[in-house]
Design brief:
heterodimer, A: 138 residues, 83% helix, extended, B: 74 residues, mainly alpha, globular
């Protein structure tokens, strides 16, 4: 391996640099926004948050090098499938348990739990729409 | 999927980064293919074979066991 900078090294280090910049801008924005919100600057916090979002998009779209390759996309697909599987298990078991608890006992399932379960329902509805779109698009 | 990508890369005196840049993927992807942890797309497989000026089946062969390719060539 050569120790001098070559176009190859430049390209790979550019990819690394842009990816760090992209995810770093989001992380910095979220941390800063949370800190500002806790310090009592809610509007400034929201502004910083959106600067981070826009910086993320700007780096993603404006990068002169390809930031993701096919393996990255394959990993994302597998991670997405795993996430959906976990969400499905939580939804099936959680919804059933919540219904049983409500009907069979006097325990009132917290509203936040129902909200989370309906959130999962929304997630799967969005997945169904996306799946149908991808499958039947012209 | 078994492959002899590493051998060919070594023979060509290239680093993983060099090969990655040549075919437009990350070094980690080349590393994962060599370690049999990622099966490349058909497109990338052809690109790698094209780069080493060989056939895809010479580079990637599920039955390749180190000397199988040579045996079959007999």
């Amino acid at each position: 391996m050569t120790s001098t900078e070559s176009p190859t090294t430049d390209r790979l280090s550019s990819r690394r640099r842009y990816r760090r910049l992209m995810f770093g801008s989001i992380a910095a924005a979220v941390v800063s926004a949370l800190a500002l919100r806790n310090l009592g600057y809610p509007l400034l916090s929201e502004g910083v948050y959106w600067v981070g979002i826009l910086a993320f998009l700007a780096v993603w779209w404006g990068s002169p090098v390809s930031l993701f390759d096919e393996r990255d996309r394959a990993l994302e697909r597998r991670a997405s499938q795993l996430t959906l599987t976990v969400a499905a298990v939580v939804l099936v078991l959680g919804a059933s348990a919540a219904r049983l608890l409500t009907e069979a006992t006097s325990y009132a399932v917290p509203t936040v739990v129902w909200g989370a379960l309906y959130g999962y329902v929304g997630l799967f509805a969005a997945f169904a729409v996306a799946y149908l779109w991808v499958r039947y698009r012209p | 999927m078994n492959n002899d990508l590493r051998d060919r890369r070594d023979r060509a005196d290239m680093s993983q980064a060099d090969l990655a840049a040549a075919v437009g993927v990350s070094r980690q992807t080349i590393n994962a293919i060599e370690r049999d942890r990622y099966d490349p797309s058909l497109e990338l497989a052809f690109e790698l074979a094209d780069y080493f000026d060989c056939r895809v089946e010479d580079l990637f062969d599920p039955d390749l066991d180190g000397n199988g390719a040579d045996d079959r060539a007999e």
